[in-house]
Amino acid sequence: MHLLVVEDDARLIRLLRRLLEEDRHIVETATTGTDGFEIAEAAAGLDVVILDVGLPDISGLEVARRIRSTGSEVAILMLTARDTIGDRVTGLDAGADDYLVKPFAYEELAARRRALGRRGAKVRRPDPKLIAGPIVLDETSRRVTLDGRSIDLSPREFSLLECLLRHPGQTLSRDQLLDQAWPFSVAVTPNAVDAYVHYLREKLGGAGRLIETVRGVGHRPAVA
Fold it and tell me: CA 205 to CA 49: how far, in whole Å?
């Protein structure tokens, strides 16, 4: 899953990032409400926002309202030290989908995140077509075209390209790409990612430049 954590407690945000990445999620972070909203507005394929109420600039409640004002249906899990019914109602009315009171156990946060992810998968109806320059990937038909011409990709090449196009401009590590594009039952090494990126570039010809390599980190799709 693609997650955004907005929290001004440096120790907590480091801990959540580490635990969530260990659970094989793509994690972005922000320490202010303004930065959190900007990331939420710009990020493609965002699944859940974990949002603290008490932020140093604008409150998490205001961030939630701004996210909803854009028409976004991303799931929002609100974190707060306040535990009254009125506080919960205020958070839900601001646009939160769920509410978790500090201090909390990571296991409970993980369970609530899973529930929100399942709910979001049922509610959201994303455009089945992912587009980057001349490349169009149709998830429904599982067809890729380049300037209108069909490109023959293997199932693994298709999954890798789909993963990349879902995160325009975002660098994904080799491990993240392995987690999302390869079945857990298949034993592969991170070097397999580089090999399949090479295959994709060959099949995409000049458009292969849209898949950039970040040395020592992984790969990212250029923003066309």
Answer: 37
